[in-house]
Amino acid sequence: MTSYLPTLKQLQYLVALEEHGHFGKAADACFVTQSTLSAGLRELETLLGVVLVERTRRVVRFTPLGNKVVAKAHRILREAEELADLVRSSGKPLSGDLRMSVIPTIAPFLLPRLLPGLRREQPELKLFLREEVSGAAVESLHHGQVDCVLLALPFPAGDVEHELLFSDPLYVAFPKDDPRDPPEKVAPELIDESRLLLLEDGHCLKDHALAACNRPELRASAMMFGTSLHTLVQMVDNRLGLTLLPQIAIDAGILNNTDVVARPLLAEHAARDIAIIWRRNSPRAEEFRMLADILRRGHAEGKCAG
């Protein structure tokens, strides 16, 4: 009896539909037309002899079996990616395509400084960048949509390996001439919880900042509606409160042309660790370690030059 197996393309369509919840958006993500994607999914359902997706005008809803199949599809696609990685890793390291997610509190401040040196050292590397908050970036990693992630630790990332790049100290940013602005470092107890502005949920910097302050009442009282560090700085510049910033943002000039000053946070764990993470047992692990070393050196040289 002949057995017909799903194709990787059909599984990619299924996974894309689950991730985007919309046929048009899923088709765009797969670089095909909506009719092509829909036909591919119907072929998959016919092949398996089951209904995986309930189609209505407004909602895409997976059947219980469909949810199980899409979870398995994620694992199959990840294994296929690792097979391709195994072949790539046997050739010249750090050449060809590499997909990396970077979190928003790192990407605009660190990458412009590090990428020119990386291009000079590894001209055959084609680095495709994807900016995502930490949770989404880790999910993309485990689903095989990216090869590695540049993020800040600690963060619950699951079964991964990592290389630390450097420590990124935290600063308290005040409006200039604020009467509560101390001359040197700021102890957490000096932070007025009613004036503290933080990033929205989803940004790990918020959790790092609150953990460093070690004041539970800050989590309840702080105003968390900043969509980016640049937005928070503009709010502080308009004397709406104070915030916490990482050193890489300050070094990149985020306070330029503002009346905002920043003082180091005086706390036991007043820093986050910038790191590269990848799936455990990835065949490209040595490449990621090489990449980490290049970025680490690039950061150190940039600090010396600054």
UniProtKB/TrEMBL annotation:
**One cellular component (GO) term of this entry:** protein-DNA complex
Transmembrane stretches in the record are none
The molecular function GO annotations come to: DNA binding; DNA-binding transcription factor activity
UniProt cross-references to Pfam families, sorted A to Z: HTH_1, LysR_substrate
Recorded hits in SUPFAM superfamilies, A to Z, give: Periplasmic binding protein-like II, Winged helix' DNA-binding domain
Q: Give the HTH lysR-type domain ranges.
A: 6-63
Could you tell me what this protein is called? LysR family hydrogen peroxide-inducible transcriptional activator
Annotated source species: Blastomonas natatoria
